[in-house]
Amino acid sequence: MLKRLILLFGLLLINSITFGQCVNLNFDNCVEFNQTINIDVDNGTNSFWTTTSPSGVVYYSNNSTSQSINFNETGTWTIDVFQPTSCFETTLIEVYNSSLNISTSPIIYQCQGQTINILNHITVSNISVLPLNYDFIINGTSTTDSIFTLQAGINTIDITVTDASGCTANTTMNINATSNSIVPPIYTITDANGNENIINSCNSTDLTFTIQNPISNYTYTWDVQGSTGTGTFTQSINATIANPGYIPVSLFLYDSSSGCTIEYYDTITSVGLDLSYVGIDQELVPSCVFDSTPGSLNLPTLLWPIDNNGNITQMGPNDTIFWSIFCDNTLSQNADIVDTFWTYQDLPQLNQPDPTYPFEPDGISGFEHYWTSNSCNCINEQYYIELNLQSACGSNGGYISWKKVNDPIEAIINIPPVLCVNEPETFQNNSEIGCDGNTFDANEDILTYEWDFGNCVTLSSSSTATSSDPFPDVTYSYPEAGIYTVAMSASSYCPPIDYDTDAITVYPNPIVNCTGTDECFNDVLNLMQMQVENSQQQETIIVLQLLPLLYKFLQEVLSLTIVGV
């Protein structure tokens, strides 16, 4: 960025230009000719300095944060600052044989009630370091506001200008305002449709300048774009090259009884859609279905139009913005979900802060839509969003975007119906999301799962939609026998949280006590009845209740052949 830096030194003016943005130079005071001035870098980093005088004398200073310079020549001084962080800054300082000065220009209409902007009637030359600060004392009252209204009689304005180096200049203006009883005019500037103070930037527009309830001894003269008109009149106003642009309007009110003329100021805005580029911008978050289901996300998808000037927050009269959303129909047909449009009058109520850049002063014109069904049954399982801009002069520009709309995640678990104590097993997470059960919005965030094993033990897990396993299983073993209800909750960006439950029976590991005669290996055992003791509960359990476990134990562990029970 090019920056103008100018230093005032009494009889010496320094005009400086800095190239780059990596470091700024600070001057310690307002310098006079032949004084030695300390200049330092604002980031406190040791730097390599090269200072070249207008006559070509070069001064070096290495590894320091500041430099002392005696400005003993007029002309252009060059200061190069290099820092090890690859920051290189060049400042050109022009030294003049003149000082900061304020000159004033006459005020034509010096009448009570005239609004004056002091900055329009002063010229500051030989400026030091920008920016400039202005201080005024108007009729004894201190202020920094340059706009004020003349009182009847003598108005005294003391003006002080201070630059960034601390150099100052002062002057005084005295304005003798003629007393009068002029009533400020009430007027309108409108087009044929009643739009006030605006024309479309694509063509010229006839505007009518109307004085409401004119007073007989007043003469009203308009001045706009170099043409004048008296009282109420109509004039064709040419659009500005800038879009938006502003056309100044002056209304001169002459009061024949006092001989006073007061000038009133206004502007006409020239604005319109710039169709050299058209687009749709949005906050990149998943779109969720809201159908009044308790807990579902009651937030709309927020879109906004952009053109070559950025976010569209204003357009001209007779410009139109069309929005269409398609599901079953194609773009060549009428929109089956949304078909609406905006006009110039609609935009002010649609403007809101930019969600992606909240400090952007102009904000956005927000198009909001609540989704009441997912996009699974739409063409290509997505909604198509079409933006069409039509200017007042007939040209068009369009843009097409698409949006997948999800239902909340559906929690599904698959668990073993029976386990033994301390037997680890996989508890399957078979949850589903999206049209095919495994499709996520591109901006879906973390999926979160919470397992409750029914015995005061919980386990949390999470996964992103882009991971190789967005539905992770868990492994768990029960330390105690019993019948438990297993529950899992699943949550995604789109609420509500979903749950699935199932029951599991956990058997104790049996202690088998058998009584009878000794048997030889591979003898056939006639097992008529026996008892198994639960070592944890110290209770007797009839073997028929644990028949599958007992059978496995006798056959595989004791190598017995069971012929009957």
- In total, the number of domains comes to 6
Instruction: Supply the CATH superfamily name of the largest domain.
Output: Immunoglobulins
CATH class label of the largest domain: Mainly Beta
CATH topology of the largest domain: Immunoglobulin-like
Sketch the major β-sheet: 6 strands, antiparallel
Content of β-strand:
over 45%
Query: Strand pairing plus helix content: what structural class?
Result: mainly beta
Output the strand order for the largest sheet: 1-2-9-8-5-6
How many β strands by DSSP? 50
Unreliable stretches: 1-19, 527-546
* Number of helices in the DSSP assignment: 2
Helix percent band = under 10%
Q: What is the CATH architecture term of the largest domain?
A: Sandwich
Radius of gyration, taken over Cα atoms and rounded to an integer in Å: 42 Å
Average pLDDT level: 84
Shape: flat
How far is it from the N-terminal to the C-terminal residue, by CA?
96 Å
What descriptive keywords fit this protein?
565 residues; six-stranded antiparallel sheet; single chain; five-stranded mixed sheet; Immunoglobulin-like; mainly beta; 2 helices
